[in-house]
Specification:
alpha/beta; 2-enoyl-CoA Hydratase, Chain A, domain 1; OB fold (Dihydrolipoamide Acetyltransferase, E2P); 5-stranded mixed barrel; 48% helix
C-alpha cells in the first residue's frame, strides 16, 4: 500500500513539474484586442414574409442586448409582403445600432420590397454584379397583374412613392431618382445606383465592406451623426430559430393553399371511410399547419369565401345533373379564391397561378367523384342484416284467408329459401306471390305482389 502511494505521489509531482516547465517555455497567449468591434450578421435570402420580419426583430434585440456596433443585413430577395417590408424598415430606422444593408453576392438582387429596405438603411451597399429597383406597386390576383380603377391605381402609386421619398430624403439619398423605381418600374445596377446617389458604396466582399466602413461618419435617421469604429470587427452570425425556420416553410401562400386542400381531402376520406386512420391524421395535421399559416399571413376573407363556395358547388355538381356547369363554376371559384387568398399589398405576393391551377383541377375531380359515390350509396339496399329483406319477393306456403281481430291476415311464406310468418292487410291465398314491406322481429309485413286476379287464379289453381 505504501509503495502504491509513493508511486502515485511521484507521478503527480512529475506531471506538475512538466506542466510548469512547459508554461515557462511557451509564449504568453495573445490577449483579445481591446478595440474589437462586434458586428451582428443577418442573412435575408428569401421573399419577405412575416417570419422574416420576426427574425429581423429578434436580430435587432440581440444587437442591442450585446452592444453590437453594427448590424449587417446581407440581402437577396425578389420582394414580398408590404406589411412585412414596413415592419423591417421600422426596425432599421428606430434601432439604436447602426445598420448596413448589403446586396450580395454577385448575381443577386434587392427588388421590390428589398429596394425599400436597402434605401432605408444607414449604409446601403451592393456587390458588383447585383441590381435593385423595380418597385412599382402591382395589382395582382395571385401572380397575375390585373387592371384596376385609375383613381385607385393613382392612390396606391402615390402612397408608395411618398413612402419611398420620406425614407430617402431622411437618408440624404436621391429621392427623385429613387421614385422612378416606383413610378416607372426602373431598375438599377450597382454602378448606376452608386452614381445616382441611391447607395453609399460598392464592395466585392464583406471584409472589404467592413474595411470601408471603419472610421466612416454616417447620418442616422433622426439626424444625428455617428462615426463607425470597426478596427477589428468580430463577426457573429445570427440564425433563425428552429421555430422560425419551420414557420418560414409553411407560411407561404402556395404551401398554405396546398395544406388547406390536403386538410379537406384527408378529413373527408376519414369520415367517409372510418378506421383508415392515415387520411384522418394527414388531414388533421394539414389543417393545424394551415391554421398556423393563416395566423401569420394576411388572409383575405373574399378568397376564403370563394373557396367555400367552390366546395358547395362541387357537392351540388355531384347531386344535380348540370352537365358539368356547376363543376366548372366551382373550379373557377376555387381558382380565383386561391388567387385572392392572400392580401398582396404593394409588393405583390400570393398563391401562384400555376399552383392554383395544378391543385384546383384534381381537387375538383376527386371531390365530385367522391360525392357522387356518397349520394349513390344512399340508394343502395343493405346487403346484410334484416334490412336487406325489405323489397324481397316470396311465395305464400300457408294461406291466411281469415281476418284477425285487427283486420289483418296471418300466414306463412317462403322468402329467400326460408320460412317466415307473414302479415298482410289482405287475404293471402296459398301460392300467391308477396313482397316484403317491413321486418318486425321474426315477422314480415307483406303485400301481394300481383293483382288480385292473379292471387285468385293462384287460389283456384291450388284448390
Amino acid at each position: 500500500m505504501k509503495r502504491r502511494k509513493f508511486w502515485l505521489r511521484a507521478s503527480l509531482l512529475l506531471v506538475a513539474g512538466t506542466a510548469m516547465a512547459a508554461a515557462r517555455q511557451a509564449p504568453p497567449a495573445a490577449p483579445a484586442a481591446p478595440d474589437a468591434a462586434r458586428v451582428l450578421e443577418v442573412r435575408l435570402d428569401d421573399a419577405i414574409y412575416p417570419t422574416q420580419a420576426d427574425f429581423i426583430h429578434d436580430a435587432f434585440a440581440e444587437a442591442a442586448r450585446t452592444n453590437a456596433r453594427l448590424v449587417l443585413i446581407t440581402m437577396n430577395t425578389p420582394g414580398g409582403l408590404d406589411s412585412s417590408m414596413r415592419a423591417i424598415i421600422q426596425q432599421i430606422i428606430t434601432s439604436p445600432v447602426p445598420t448596413v444593408v448589403y446586396v450580395s453576392p454577385a448575381g443577386t438582387r434587392a427588388a421590390s420590397a428589398g429596394y425599400y429596405i436597402l434605401l432605408s438603411a444607414d449604409i446601403a451597399a451592393m456587390a458588383p454584379g447585383t441590381n435593385t429597383g423595380a418597385a412599382s406597386p402591382i395589382f395582382v390576383i395571385g401572380g397575375q397583374p390585373v387592371q384596376i380603377d385609375e383613381t385607385l391605381r393613382k392612390k396606391v402609386m402615390n402612397d408608395a412613392a411618398a413612402y419611398l421619398r420620406s425614407i430617402t430624403d431622411k437618408r440624404g439619398r436621391n429621392p427623385k431618382l429613387a421614385e422612378l423605381a416606383v413610378t416607372e418600374a426602373k431598375a438599377f445596377t450597382e454602378r448606376e445606383a452608386l452614381e445616382g446617389k441611391l447607395i453609399d458604396l460598392i464592395a466585392p466582399s464583406t471584409e472589404d465592406l467592413l474595411a470601408q466602413l471603419n472610421g466612416r461618419e454616417i447620418r442616422r435617421f433622426d439626424g444625428t451623426t455617428v462615426k463607425l469604429a470597426l478596427p477589428n470587427p468580430v463577426r457573429t452570425n445570427f440564425e433563425m430559430t428552429g421555430r422560425q425556420k419551420f414557420l418560414g416553410r409553411i407560411a407561404r401562400p402556395d404551401v398554405m393553399f396546398i395544406l388547406v386542400v390536403l386538410a379537406v381531402l384527408g378529413i373527408y376520406f376519414e369520415f367517409s371511410n372510418p378506421g383508415l386512420i392515415v387520411p384522418g391524421v394527414v388531414g388533421g395535421v394539414s389543417l393545424i399547419l394551415a391554421l398556423i399559416a393563416m395566423q401569420i399571413l394576411p388572409i383575405n376573407a373574399v378568397g376564403v369565401l370563394l373557396i367555400l363556395t367552390a366546395l358547395v358547388l362541387f357537392v351540388l355538381e355531384a347531386k344535380i345533373t348540370s352537365h358539368g356547369l356547376l363543376g366548372m363554376a366551382g373550379a373557377l371559384a376555387m381558382f380565383f379564391g386561391a388567387m385572392l387568398l392572400i392580401k398582396p399589398g404593394i409588393t405583390g405576393a400570393g398563391v401562384s397561378p400555376m399552383v392554383a391551377g395544378i391543385v384546383t383541377l384534381p381537387f375538383a375531380l376527386i371531390t365530385v367523384l367522391l360525392m357522387r359515390q356518397v349520394f349513390k350509396s344512399f340508394s343502395w339496399k343493405p346487403s346484410t342484416g334484416m334490412e336487406q329483406m325489405v323489397g324481397a319477393s316470396g311465395e305464400v306456403t300457408t294461406a291466411g284467408e281469415t281476418p284477425q281481430a285487427d283486420g289483418s291476415y296471418h300466414g306463412q311464406a317462403s322468402v329467400q329459401g326460408e320460412l317466415w310468418r307473414v302479415v298482410a292487410a289482405q287475404a293471402l291465398p296459398k301460392g300467391a306471390r308477396i313482397r316484403v314491406m317491413k321486418v318486425d322481429g321474426l315477422t314480415l309485413h307483406v303485400e301481394l305482389a300481383g293483382a288480385p286476379q292473379d292471387a285468385a287464379a293462384a287460389t283456384t289453381k291450388h284448390a
